[in-house]
Amino acid sequence: MFNTKFCEMIEINYPIIQGAMAWIADGILAAAVSNAGGLGIIASGNAPVEYVKEQIKKAKELTDKPFGVNIMLLSDNAESVAKLVCEEGVKVVTTGAGNPGKYMDMWKKHNIKVIPVVASVALAKRMERAGADAIIAEGCEAGGHIGELTTMALLPQVVDAVDIPVVGAGGIGDGRGVAAAFMLGAQGIQVGTRFLVANECTIHENYKEKVLKSKDIDSVVTGRGTGHPVRVLRNQLSRKYQKLEKENAPIEELEKLGAGALRKAAREGDMITGSVMAGQIAGLINKKQSCKDIVEEMFNEAETLVNKLGNK
Ligand code: TUI
To answer: Are residues 69 and 157 in the same domain?
Structure first.
């Protein structure tokens, strides 16, 4: 039922992209999602280019299915990673936190499918004109760096504004979310938070436990004042950050507090001074599963729901 044109374009069985989560989405997670029939994504975040190269090598060892690499455009290494994906023959690139316009021609020349994440209709249109193959419309329910609009409001407006496939993201954690995104016109979905607790996700157990324990209102947005709003699960770091923001602390002080904090949470399990990025849907996520079970369960649930429509 959910075998869309988008699936054909990317050569995947299920129209699901695994969200690019910096210091979290490595070659192991990406390969597991691709082996499950979705599109696994290696997140480059702020990591050095050598790290990304290693993760691409690992993913190639673990799967013969297509996988992608995400370029985080705020990173100092964005340009090097943008070139690396061309050298490595990566099939799909997603981008986040900016406008990837200056790399589009290079990627298209290398036959890479380009799927930018956008948080507005304006950028979606610009990306379509620049040659994007599809668009990920990400609402502010998502974890990490976010825009202003919710998925419910953003997704149908982007669907109406462009002729290329649109993938819905932000707040999707089960089959109900999948069905809802399709009702809004999406041809695919992107899921991050639910994959945090996947068996193949290599983050620290403390991070997984914090996601499993979290409730509906446990995420907060920090950094609205600095122009880089980020959704995280509440902890000592987020409280300190918000207090400093209220006191109008200098941006440099806030940046210093945030530097390296995601790595600390994801790799060292520091739930006190680490940045525990996750989406609003974390409260719904209550079990660890393989990537295969997550993907199949989400689409089976969605199919059941859609079949029920109109029946009493
Ligand atoms: O990029 C993400 N999520 C991220 S990136 C990240 S690493 C980071 N850490 C600290 C501070 C900042 C980043 C953690 N999570 N999601 C995709 C996304 N892109 N969401 C929103 C956007 C976005 C927002 C504005 C994309 C483009 C944009 O406008 C650019 C323009 O020039 O118009």
So the answer is: yes
Mutate to test the pocket of ligand 1, among 145, 172, 230, 255 (most ligand atoms within 8 A of CB): 145
Tell me if 125 CB under 6 Å of ligand 1.
no
C-alpha triplet 28, 103, 260: angle, nearest 5°: 50
Quote the CA–CA distance of 109 and 105 in Å, as a whole number: 6
CA of 311 to the centre of ligand 1 (A): 41
SS (H, E, C) 60-91: HHHCCCCEEEEEECCCCCHHHHHHHHHHCCCC
Where is the domain boundary, 170, 202, 234?
A: 202
- Residue 145 CA to ligand 1 center (angstroms) comes to 5
Helix, strand, coil percentages (3-state) for the chain, rounded to 5, are 45, 15, 40
Say whether pTM exceeds 0.70.
Answer: yes
Residue 187: give the domain boundaries: 11-202
Residues 136 and 19 in one domain: yes
CA 225 / ligand 1 centre spacing (Å): 15
Give the chain's domain count: 2
Q: Is the CB of 22 under 6 A from ligand 1?
A: yes
Q: Are strands 67-72 and 92-96 parallel, antiparallel or unpaired?
A: parallel
- pLDDT (tens digit, 9 = 90+) per residue, 269-303? 999 999 999 999 999 999 999 999 999 999 999 99
> Pairing relation of β-strands 219-222 and 230-233?
antiparallel
